[in-house]
Amino acid sequence: MGMTNAQGPVLVTAATGKTGRRVLARLTDLGIDARGITRSDGFDWDAPARWPEFLTGVRAAYLAYAPDIAMPGAGAKVAAFAEAARAHGVERLVMLSGRGEETALASEQAVRVVAPDTTIVRCSFFAQNFDEGALAGYIAAGTLTLPVIDMPEPFVDVEDVAEVAAKALAEPGHEGRLYEVTGPELLTFAQAAELLGAQAIAVPVDEWRAELAAAGLPADLIDLLAYLFTEVMDGRNRSVADGVQQALGRPARRFEEFAAEMKKAAA
């Protein structure tokens, strides 16, 4: 490899996103020199010619593809970025991935080909999608309409995701590991909505897509959400995993804790 950047900063992509801003904050709290980058800084997954200016001197990097690693073509871009990172002496890579998504698994494999010791943080459905994401408006209005409301899912708290990723970036011993991070219990979307003070109602997927479009969501995000709520919600994720316990030595945060905090914040 030749050059290493043992004293360089940690680079955090998608630094204003759900996980990225929390990873950045945790690294900063640990006293680690961390640098967040977003599109507004000139970083673009589709502009590899500019990547060297972001990677030069960096010792570790958090790879979070926005809007989601399940997007078509994401894996090839993240793998190319990982390859560029290695060429610039970046020693430690931590990648955010999605559970049960075939495109995400293909992306993980593509990155592991060029950087086999990448740490992968593979997540179930984020609890924070209910208050920071596409579903926030529904919850605020008191009615959550979805194509699937009765499939159990081990909702993971993004605070746990960020803590796992930050730990893997900050210290040795996590290289090549796969942490499958979920919450500690299964809840249906109907149960989750109830805990958040809302009611879930099942609607046909085409009707739901039209609602999302009317709410102003971009077409590629609507396609992604429709994929997640049709193909991925077929029961394949009806199990909890212990990635949080493995990485942090403590249980994952329960959805009830997240729900209580969300309701308190809204009060």
Automatic annotation (TrEMBL):
Highest taxon, organism lineage: Bacteria
Protein name: NmrA family transcriptional regulator
